[in-house]
Amino acid sequence: MERARKQLHLNLFLLSTGHHEASWRHPGSAPERAVDVHYYVKLARTAERGLFDSLFLSDAYGLPPTIKYKVLHGLEPFTLLSALAMATERIGLIGTASTTFNEPYHIARKFASLDLISGGRAGWNIVTSTGNTTALNFREEGLPEHSERYRRAEEFLQVATGLWDGWERDALVIDKDSGVYADPDKIRPILHKGAYYTVRGPLNLPPMPQRYPLLVQAGASETGKAFAALAAEAVFTAQHSLEAGKAFYADLKARLPRHGRAPEEVSILPGFCPIIGDTAAEARDKEQALHELTQTEYGLYRLSNLLGLDLSTYPLDGPLPYAELPETAQINSQKGRQQMFLDMARSEGLSIRQLMMRTASSRGHFSMAGTPGQIADAMAQWLEEGAADGFNLMPPYLPEGLDDFVDKVVPELQARGIYRTAYSGRTLREHYGRTAPPRIAAPAAAQAPLRA
Amino acid sequence: MERARKQLHLNLFLLSTGHHEASWRHPGSAPERAVDVHYYVKLARTAERGLFDSLFLSDAYGLPPTIKYKVLHGLEPFTLLSALAMATERIGLIGTASTTFNEPYHIARKFASLDLISGGRAGWNIVTSTGNTTALNFREEGLPEHSERYRRAEEFLQVATGLWDGWERDALVIDKDSGVYADPDKIRPILHKGAYYTVRGPLNLPPMPQRYPLLVQAGASETGKAFAALAAEAVFTAQHSLEAGKAFYADLKARLPRHGRAPEEVSILPGFCPIIGDTAAEARDKEQALHELTQTEYGLYRLSNLLGLDLSTYPLDGPLPYAELPETAQINSQKGRQQMFLDMARSEGLSIRQLMMRTASSRGHFSMAGTPGQIADAMAQWLEEGAADGFNLMPPYLPEGLDDFVDKVVPELQARGIYRTAYSGRTLREHYGRTAPPRIAAPAAAQAPLRA
Ligand SMILES: Cc1cc2nc3c(=O)[nH]c(=O)nc-3n(C[C@H](O)[C@H](O)[C@H](O)COP(=O)(O)O)c2cc1C
Ligand SMILES: Cc1cc2nc3c(=O)[nH]c(=O)nc-3n(C[C@H](O)[C@H](O)[C@H](O)COP(=O)(O)O)c2cc1C
């Protein structure tokens, strides 16, 4: 009997008109539907037809100042995912929630509710937020410092998991005759009092089907990777090349044993932006057409923001002003992304304009133009050479980029024996091949049972 | 031509197994489905079949210590209402959100998202929260003081409406050819800096169909009524008798001109808990059966909590210990409700046990047992004598209490010419007969247009 090949997992990163920054100008895109729930229903159903493990909504709590040139992000994740739960059956529903600008009780409860509504399909992309566009909607001081954000994230997660663990599975008695609805000894407050949060508990919802939502993380800095190793079950990451992907993969997997976790307990999902053509030439033409729609004003803003320096006064066709750029240590927003952009520009010798174009399709994630077969081969290579356990699919434009992937690439993956031909699990965690969430050390308290 | 009779509005107060505290023990109830979305879908569709203006979810952010004797409240409102939006077409969807334990940016955005998802059917029950069961999940000090909560509510509402007003209707240009997605001069930050919140804005969602969700309020204290007069378009209220209802109605309507508002700009909806029988005797039997299922432990806890004194050491069949009870001024939780309970007990000369029973069906709201015709007559009387513009229907047990109402009482209301026979509007606000939300004074700022 042939040895079964390693199976890949697919998450759809669902973002209004797609991941190329000019996607909204693509002839087939529908930017006027960026806040239309029925538009997302259709895309979610396509992903489900493609047997994706999950779909994912990113999030930020502010309007980017680039709205003149860039389509809206979309609807709010908890409301949209709950709506999508009703319109789909099997696909996982991963929402982003920031630990910097939320209360753990609210977030724990909303994920529990979403998991109950969806029958065990909720996932949480745990982020610490990345900019003042968000921060200034909550406080005057702007974004808290990077390491403080991660300390807060750890405490936040302790509280959330403590709340989810607070109910024993058999706490609900529901005996109409005796009049006992629940056994209060099986529902414990957490009595949490930490540096950032005071939360008594217990949660006002019973255990959700998955016990915890699938825990997802996407930090790329040292602190971010340490956090992922502690808590994440799936990791989104931006890797611009196979080599970079392998290095990240090896690095993250090596961190797991320190937390008593096996390598297969975390699925690493690099972002992947495929431009699909029936021939290689057609794919290249499609890529070129997208490039011609990109706008310098937007690209410059995006790069300047990420690299921490206003680039608009430098010659577009000259090199990056390396000497003037801040060091990674000084970057407070996305340290990991800043480093990757510098690596790309240096190793490929890119001008400012070239870096802009190179990152326009998916902000630096792995991107390629090719035929369905070439794309499936590249995915298989990342899988087999230890750069990925699957992919965070970032179609350059929607709906076509997703339709093409599902209709043309998925069969190629299946033909290679590396992708499912039917769902076998029911819950999101089962799709990723696991049965239980990670063990996250409980907060101090939790002795006193609940008493009226 | 006969003069058209005043039309009544109906809101379904959707609460797990129903409003009688023993409803979960009722033979026809399904307490094991209190967190099952499909259970709520079915009820929402029944209410829609009954042409209700809206359904409403109350909320608190904590588990009551009475969980031993009392069914769970249900799912989280934003997630559940978004799910229900997908399963219904016309009925309004009102969710509760507290201004004491939330950030205005998050709440403004979630309601905008819900309104977009539901096609203009969102409503916001603005509450300030009522107890430490909630408060201790956010802070050590417990519930902030009553008047501070309302000051915070006013600022919160200023911020939220400011965010909703920040986008002009035609801000989205979406011109693929020129590459202009939006006109940044038509999207303004609010630059809010107040006593409680700092919020830059703008919102990252375009105007919702209704511009604001329908604004609903339920405070009964002086401060609460002042707030309702300023901002509410619908008011939920607990009134135990026609007389009390008339007094409240007159009081609230008289406050409106001070804010430049006409009496018809606010719909007053007293809670109403009908126990429906095909004969009066059958209705009384049903009521009696429910009474027999109530539990003293729970009822005593509930009364003690509301009145601010542990009643468990007093004889159940004796009077309330009036001399020992705290004054309304000392009550920090629900001043209005405490006063109503004392009024009821005094005016009807009730013992502790009698007050418990009298308030078991709906916590003091107007309740009656009768035939469909008697119930419709009572509703018509409240409508015509100036005690109500409609009702907040609180079925004692579900699903039967709602089925009976829709199948038997609704036709009686229609036969009396006081209730619609088909939906005419599309949005929730249209159901309540209005076209625009109230004008709420804008926060200080809002000059600088958004710039990249
Ligand atoms: C695929 C992907 C998706 C992300 N989605 C979000 C998001 O929705 N919201 C957010 O605030 N940050 C998001 N991030 C950013 C990271 O979660 C992380 O907060 C950020 O990179 C800063 O952490 P770092 O300095 O450790 O990299 C995303 C990153 C990646 C790679
Ligand atoms: C029908 C009705 C529903 C209510 N729903 C809620 C609720 O869901 N959550 C909440 O915290 N308070 C709720 N309340 C309480 C009021 O909103 C208000 O906060 C409370 O009565 C305290 O204000 P007061 O002292 O002005 O009455 C409700 C009140 C009524 C009459």
Automatic annotation (TrEMBL), chains A, B:
This is LLM class flavin-dependent oxidoreductase. Keywords: Flavoprotein, FMN, Monooxygenase, Oxidoreductase. Belongs to the NtaA/SnaA/DszA monooxygenase family. It comes from the Bacteria. CDD domains: Nitrilotriacetate_monoxgenase. Pfam families: Bac_luciferase (PF00296). GO terms for molecular function: monooxygenase activity; oxidoreductase activity, acting on paired donors, with incorporation or reduction of molecular oxygen. The keyword Secreted does not apply. Gene3D superfamilies: Luciferase-like domain (3.20.20.30). Residues 25-387 form the Luciferase-like domain. FMN binds at D59, T96, H146, Y150, S221. It comes from Paenibacillus sabuli.
